[in-house]
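User: I'm putting together notes for a lab meeting next week and I want to include a structural view of one of the chains we've been expressing. I don't have a solved structure, so I'd like a prediction I can at least talk through. The sequence is below, exactly as it appears in our construct file.
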Amino acid sequence: MSAFSFTSAQLRQLATDVLHHAARCGASACETDVSEGYGQSVTVRKGAVETIEFNRDKGIGITVYLGQRSGHASTSDFSSAALQATVEAALSIARFTAEDPCAGLPAPELLAHDTDAMDLDLYHPWPILVEDAIEIARRSEQAAFAVSPLIKNSEGATVSAHAAHFISANSLGFMGGFPSTRHFISCVPIAQGGKGGKDMQRDDWYSGWRDANDLAAPEVIGDYAARRTLSRLGAKKLKTRQCKVMLEAPLASMLIGSFVHAVSGGSLYRKASFLVDSLGKRIFPSWMNIEEKPHLKKGLASSPFDDDGVATQDRTVVANGELQAYFLSTYTARKLGMQTTGNAGGSHNLLVAHSPDAPADFAGMLKAMGTGLLVTELLGHGINYVTGDYSRGAVGYWVEKGEIAYPVQEITIAGNLRDMFAGIDMVGRDVVTRGSRTVGSIVVNRMTVAGS
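Assistant: Thanks for the context. Below is the predicted structure for the 452-residue chain, given as structure tokens.
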């Protein structure tokens, strides 16, 4: 892979040109984002190269304001004529939109300054040759096949490397940006067994980080993915019941994601959340704490500012089970009569603390749960954020007396998010990071499991 086609200085000049042209055309305010990215992805299936993909893209997004009317347009053409035409297209849109009292740039005092001085260590390019990426993918898949002759097929092993950089700027004087990278290795084996070899199961695992040196070894990824897949052979249905449910750490991250969605500005001002007006109220057990850390080195969701240019800062989101803060952009905050929390674009590195009595490892979590359902995969999207009603297809394992008894499939877990949050018995120490969330496995004290 080659490096960026544009320097950071060139992106800054493009942003400056956009702001100047918007001002000349009569815009009362303007904001713009200029970005470029490139990457490659290689997938090997059953030892043969299945796909090799290269991507290189760039774009400029422009939002202009005429008072409290706004218009947005974008282009991938960086020529002067194209930038001017895009600014004028955004202005044409703004002239025909209704006034919105909440539209506009952030308050100047909230904008980030000296962003270049904050090095969050997010840029670690991986100049890997295609041949080397193919070899890494093969090693991962071969490790999966080596675990057992029952691993008979594969959806492939993938090695991906990506880099991007951007500049955001607005007419209040804010300008900032930085380069970043994200790389991953994944493997998806398929096992076949049982009578007549009719039982087929798949599972997967991956490792993804900013720095390729932090990725798990490809052989470890393939081996673990294969063992997860084999353990699903012979899966049964469960009879419908109510029981404890343990969400494996990657799925626990999804549960925390549901919490973030419910307390984000867009859901709140539309009254489309069961957690409207919950600030200061107890949502989780009294021991539970969630922190937001936007400035973690190498963090997958680290940034000195949000998509509005507002400075980010460490925050306590949940303290002793009580909701301390929402996730608000400039616009959604104004809709709620509040101040932005620096979360335009989403949350930044949420760290969910383990419960005080959490065992040392995953096996200890199973023993502490005792008897119940361990869920390792969720299917479908059955969440109603207005009511909090939750229903998802699930795959996992039935646990008896702290030990996995047998795999289960073709079941549904159901409950209400409000009850699920309040009913969290434990958060484990077996933490994984998935995107912006770092959390261990979560045990919910009671859910309905629908089966046969």
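A couple of points you could mention at the meeting. The longest strand covers residues 151-170. The CA atoms of residues 329 and 343 lie 5 Å apart.

User: Perfect, that's what I needed.
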